[in-house]
């Protein structure tokens, strides 16, 4: 299997990442539900309350790092070469993708959807860990 397919497969088996930001050398990490953009494999989509602290942090430093959270096994994708930005997509534009990827997300949209903005993580390079051997990497 080539690395892009491995990358997609690993990310397709989870819907959570640990997303790290840093402002003034103070790191902050949180668990974020995400979807892989099917048209652009180098883009992860997530929605968050536009008033959330992380949105303020994004405005101060767009560079982010993340690791996928495995659900069984150790295979995961991680990157320290990524940037985040507000998406041109509205939540309505990608609602079907979010609902099909993240369990119970329809309820989240119904409850607080009008407070959510969609963001994109643009991955420039990622490390792909499939086992205990040396990890591989992919550059977009």
Key terms for this structure?
8 strands; Pnp Oxidase, Chain A
Q: Would you mind describing this structure in some detail?
A:
This protein has 140 residues and is α+β, with helices and mostly antiparallel strands. The protein has one domain: Pnp Oxidase, Chain A (Roll), CATH 2.30.110. The chain is 26% helix and 43% strand. Strands 1, 2, 3, 4, 5, 6, 7 and 8 form an eight-stranded antiparallel sheet that branches. Strand 7 and strand 8 form a beta hairpin. It is globular and about 45 Å long. The model has no long low-confidence stretch (mean pLDDT 95).
What's the helix and strand layout?
Elements: H1 3-12, E1 16-23, E2 26-33, E3 35-36, E4 43-49, H2 53-60, E5 63-68, E6 76-86, H3 91-101, H4 105-112, E7 116-129, E8 136-139
Antiparallel strand pairs: 1-2, 1-5, 3-4, 4-7, 5-6, 6-7, 7-8
